[in-house]
Amino acid sequence: MLRTFSRDLAIDLGTANTLVFVRGEGIVLNEPSIVAIHESDRSVIAVGKEAKAMLGRTPGNIRVIQPLKDGVIADFEITERMLGHFISRTQRWLRTILKPRVVIGVPSGITQVERRAVRDSAKHAGANDVYLVEGPVAAAIGAGLPVQEPGGNLIVDIGGGTTEVAVISLAGVIFCTSVRVAGDKMDEAILQHIRKHYNLLIGERQAEELKITLGSACPGEREPRTVEVKGRDLADGIPKTIVLTEDEIREALREPVTTIVETVRTCLERTPPELAADIVDTGIVITGGGGLLRGLDRLLGQEMQLPVKIAPDPMSCVVLGLGRVLDELDLLKRVAGPA
Predict the structure, then answer these.
(1) I want to staple 218 with a disulfide (CB 3.0 to 4.6 A). Which of 64, 112, 295, 325 is the partner?
(2) What digits encode the pLDDT tens for the residues 96-155?
(3) DSSP state of 216
(4) Beta strand 72-73 with 200-201: parallel, antiparallel or unpaired?
(5) What is the CATH number of domain 2-137+317-338?
């Protein structure tokens, strides 16, 4: 009877953002995967949005940490505290009665050591049973693809740390290729472009804002826009303002975008013929926050000569898929097992 009232959770533990889905309620939390700590005793000062607001603005005794890098746990202790903070925010008084069952999305090809790290983090953070589901499968379920049927579905999940391209059939991954180039590498490419061509240093947050405002994968039909960018001149150390165009940001993003396109091509080349025939009809589905880069769907369509669509809510696809798995026990048994 207690299990009926349990607030079971689905968690998309992402490099850039962590989303939490509560069974029966939907998405209740969407926060940056960032933690601010004291250097001296590693005590937590802030988590999520509050910590992100501190990026680039902290004194020497405070450090802002992104505990997940390139889709894997880089700092076990801080990840555990972050998970504990997010889980406690969703549980309230029921947490004292029954620990929640937790389903977590993980990258395809994750090692046993990394699986154990994710499991232990969730257990120490207050979870009871922990199940791991491969991210591309969860994304495909969240995007509404018929993953349990014997047909090929090609999913391109572009997150913060990794891009995963997978062919899915019968609720399993037939072939998957992953590359550690995604949203974070795009931000870094913009930052390095401005440093190289203008000798100007800007922060990570500003690079991300430029990607959202001006970023594109191919020229659009609208008038190109410009944005004023403020930073520190590396020559004399004085704050300076420059004007950047959409064309410049697109050029800065050329390398990471090309890497993503080639990763999709590699996956298609290694797809079994029968499933490749299915993909000609079903096309490519893009999920993840990185998929919101303007023109990426058009570029992929031109390069692959296949229909390409962006999922209705690309940033939430993984956690929505995990949430559906929580509700459907048969599906949970097919796509996951105890970590």
Answers:
(1) 295
(2) 467 788 999 988 777 888 888 888 888 888 888 899 999 999 999 999 999 899 999 999
(3) B
(4) unpaired
(5) 3.30.420.40
Decide: residue 23, CB within 10 A, 0-12 exposed, 13-18 middle, 19+ buried: middle
CA distance 252 to 192: 8
**In the CATH hierarchy, which fold is given to the domain comprising 147-181+257-314?**
Nucleotidyltransferase; domain 5 (3.30.420)
pTM of the model: 0.89
> Quick one: tokens of 276?
């490749």
Nearest Cα to 106, choosing from 324, 330, 321? Answer: 321
Distances (CA, A) of 197 to 194, 239, 284, 323: 5, 16, 36, 45
d(CA 83, CA 72): 14
Contact 264, 304 (CB under 8 A): yes
